[in-house]
Amino acid sequence: MNINSLKHYINSKTSSSPLVIFRISFGLLIFFSIIRFWSNGWIKSLYLDPVFHFSYLGFSWVKPVGNYTYLIFLLCILSSLGFALGYKYKLSSIVLFLSFTYIELMDKTTYLNHYYLISILAFMLIFLPAANYFSIDSLRNNKDKLIPRWSVDSIKVMLCIVYFYAGFAKINSDWLIDAQPLKIWLQGSYDIPLIGELLQKKWVHYIMSWGGMLYDCLIPFLLYIKRTRWFAFLLVVIFHVLTKVLFPAIGMFPYIMIVSCFIFFNYSYHDQIILFLRRLVNKTRLYKNLKKRVEKPKILNHSRNSMYLIAGFLLLQILIPLRYKLYPGELFWTEQGYRFSWRVMLVEKRGHTDFRIINSDDNQEFYVNNEDFLTPFQEKQMSFQPDFIVEFAQFLGDYYTEKGLNNVEVYVDAFATLNGRKSERLIDPKINLYGIKNSILHKDWINPYPHEINKL
Amino acid sequence: MKKILNVLFLTLLFSCTSEDTSSNPEDDDFDRQAMLVNLTDNIILPSFYDLEEKLNGLKNNLDSFSEKLDLTSLTSLRDSFFEAYRSWQHVEMFNIGKAEEIYYPQKMNIYPSNVSRIHLNMIKVDLDLDSGQNEYSAQGFPALDYMLFGLGENDNEILLTYSNQNNNSLAYLKILVNKMISNTSTVIEDWKINRTEFVNSFGNNSSSSLNMLVNDYVYYYEKGLRTNKFGIPAGRWALKRPQNVEAFYAKNLSKILAIEALKACNNFFIGKCNISNNIKGESFKSYLDFLEGQNLLSNSILDAFRSANTKMQSLDDNFSAIVENDNLKLLEVFQELQEGVVLLKTDMISMMDISVDYMDADGD
User: Fold this and answer.
1) Statement to judge: residues B212 and B298 lie in one domain
2) Measured between alpha carbons, how far is A405 from A390 in angstroms, rounded to an integer?
């Protein structure tokens, strides 16, 4: 691509309807996700009940705020609705991004790749002109349908990054040669009607593993090429519905991906949907009243700055999943550089971690009851992730120091099993975890994994 | 490329509808319901019946004892207490259904017993052993342990206490035994009624029988066996607590009970009936062997049981004396048991794909 064609691309415009449909469906999905989250009682059980919360490095100040936590969720619900309707879009999108991201940062126990994806897309959409057409903001200004092409393309690029890295991560010996962890999970899905028995078979584990890898790697191209687009979208639907059937606990992820991938289609399809929706809302009295009251919006000016920012952000998204290369040791074992990289359903890990407290007063070593401080869910997640273990160890160190013990030291007996292999010792039992500084630097107190998992 | 994908896609689709007839289905699948049936009918129920029988024997000997307060009848009473306590080791892990609902394990075996509460209860007019968790440690086997071995400095003193018309020891003893029998009957009745429903719930979700059974089993091995019988007395969780051993007053039973508990874990794992002493069907072991396609994991688990047993066998009978004089020995057993905890809690649960957090939060 030469400079001229790049300039041409930057200045070229396209219909905003794909982005509009994306805005509406994305906003509504978040709206229903949060309501579902709330009605399942997860705000209480995940954020209010635990006495201790696991934080992301540098974000330990983001914590649940007692019963006000419900307000944050309410804010998220309202802003997602405002976002979907394109009402005070700038404000709605900023509040949506901040409230959703705050929720995710409160406790990393609940980290899910698709929550991260929602945060990322919400961030990008702050700077994209998704509401200057078919929105409350644009009721009196419906003619400005054209928007810069890059703004629609940036979402597509982001989705391609997700799929591509998800596929890239599956190119490893556990996944392709041992069909793990799918073997364990599919065997465990024996109670699914009709196909449960089939899922016990070895060849099914391999077909699913290889199929999943090929799907993730190829789907960006198939969606991009016009000729294969419908076929690709059919695959998207089948693949994600299948994951929902096999792994019901996967939550909203399949829906988010299915809905998002629709953005790859030509604007004419989106126009038709908008036409249909418009007929629907035109009939409502509310719409007519609204139309009279809304003041003429300022023409949204999407500056070059937005484009540079989005471009830089996408570049960062390409780099972040590669950071694992900077760490020595087995990635699946140490999990250094594991998160924020679209490593979806890649490992089956379980752990058991006992914490031993030593103090200089009586040199009596004692164990901690993890359940005194952690919920079963937190304990499960903590047991096999070194960054959780060190964080909890340091919390325990502070706790017992405050209780009056002197020179507290915290050691762990941590064991974990990975993708069906026999459990191994995860952490060096001779390291006082209360005496080390937790950072993004390599954690040399993680025991090296005795097995090799070949990967790209 | 499109062709390849077409083929792949068709295979995927096809694989959802077609039956594989080429290979022997017996090698390809495992009957989890048959496993539940075997565990329920050949282990859980017979173990409960055995306990019920032993408790009735205890009651008979208590009747004889109350008629004739002498050393001979006290000795038979103690013997039947011991038999029942041994039998109990085989059912404590089944904290499911009614047992969980009425806090059956807590009412049967929370130790150490609360002596002052026991004495308080003896003179209480409106005694209600179900009134709350404060009563747990004033009933069940640990309370019997105190009543039969700890009520006096020696056998004569104990007999004297019982002959003393002014105290209510004998009455309380009867209340305790009757309560244990009625609690056990309640649990057994529930098992009888719900047996079919139980063995039919072989799905894989946090409330299915299979998941609960695995979780209870692992929990018992970790807490009931490792923590309670060894860890806490040996001071793994705080200071050493010699009075926290099981059967503290009987003095020479702790070891036998611990070995029995380990045997219960071993038998349940391999699907062996404790009463008939044979293996009649599928078990956690055969399930793991199916899932793994070999028996490396189940062998490691059995090895861990075996070496823990060897270490236990080498101990003296009286654990509280060991805690006082030779605590490292108990810690060594704790360490051996720890190996089993890791294998059961990580390797086995992982391979069986059992959820342990009792909540259905999303995952990806």
Assistant:
1) yes
2) 20
Q: Which helix (H) or strand (E) holds A14?
A: strand A13-15
User: Residues 124-183, chain A: which have Cβ within 8 Å of B?
Assistant: none
Contact A367 B236 (CB under 8 A): yes
Residues of B in contact with A47 (CB under 8 A): none
**Chain A residues whose beta carbon lies within 8 Å of the beta carbon of residue B25:** 197
> Using a CB-CB distance cutoff of 8 angstroms, which residues of chain B are in contact with residue A413?
338
pLDDT digits (tens, 9 = 90+) for B283-293: 999 999 999 99
Average pLDDT of the residues of chain A: 92
Q: Residues B348, B297: contact at Cβ < 8 Å?
A: yes
Q: Do the chains contact at A238 and B203, CB–CB below 8 Å?
A: no
B164 shares its domain with B251 = no
pLDDT at position A2:
78
Question: Residue B284 is part of which domain span?
Answer: 204-357
| Partner-chain residue, chosen from A40, A189, A366, that has the shortest CB–CB distance to B237 | A366
Q: pTM of the predicted model, to two decimals?
A: 0.91
Answer whether A377 sits within 8 Å of B357, measured CB to CB: yes
Examine residue B30 and state whether it is found in any structural domain, yes or no. no
Instruction: State the amino acid at position A251 in one-letter form.
Output: G
Question: What 3 state SS string does A302-313 have?
Answer: CCHHHHHHHHHH
Q: What is the ipTM of this complex?
A: 0.90
